[in-house]
Amino acid sequence: MTRKVRSSNLTKCCPKPELGERPLLSTPQAVDLMAIFKVLANDTRLRLLHALVRAGEMCVGDLAKALGMRPQAVSNQLQRLANRGILGSRRNGNQVYYRVVDPCVPRLLDQGLCLTEDARK
Q1: Domain encompassing residue 60
Q2: What CATH code is carried by the domain that includes residue 97?
Q3: What is the pTM of this model?
């Protein structure tokens, strides 16, 4: 079952200085950033994130059906995203529902899509 969660539940992304105003990345910061991009650099995880941004919250079974995958495969990918703090989950009976909790992720996906669409022009 899908439950729509208003995007206003996510706080504004990164209430910090713009990238151009920040000091040059340190090596540990660059490594942390690389780890985030690595977890996002997977077509299945990107599709799961997009489905969750659109729906707000979905159970594993509904996500599996939407992506045409086995629930166990979907669950494994969701766990990777949850381990990085990108997703949150709750259990309702036998079902586990996931939602995006990192407010920067929808914006990052939007920017990534913008880049790919602009590159095709």
Answers
A1: 25-119
A2: 1.10.10.10
A3: 0.83
The neighbour count for residue 87, using CB atoms within 10 Å, is 21
In a domain, 16, yes or no: no
Dump pLDDT digits (tens) for 47-103: 999 999 999 999 999 999 999 999 999 999 999 999 999 999 999 999 999 999 999
Name the domain count of the chain.
1
Asked, for residue 97, whether it belongs to a domain, the answer is yes
Q: Please, which contacts does 20-26 make with residues 24 or more away whose CB atoms are closer than 8 Å?
A: none
The full 3-state SS of 4-54, as one line of letters, equals: CCCHHHCCCCCCCCCHHHCCCCCHHHHHHHHHHHHHHCCHHHHHHHHHHHH
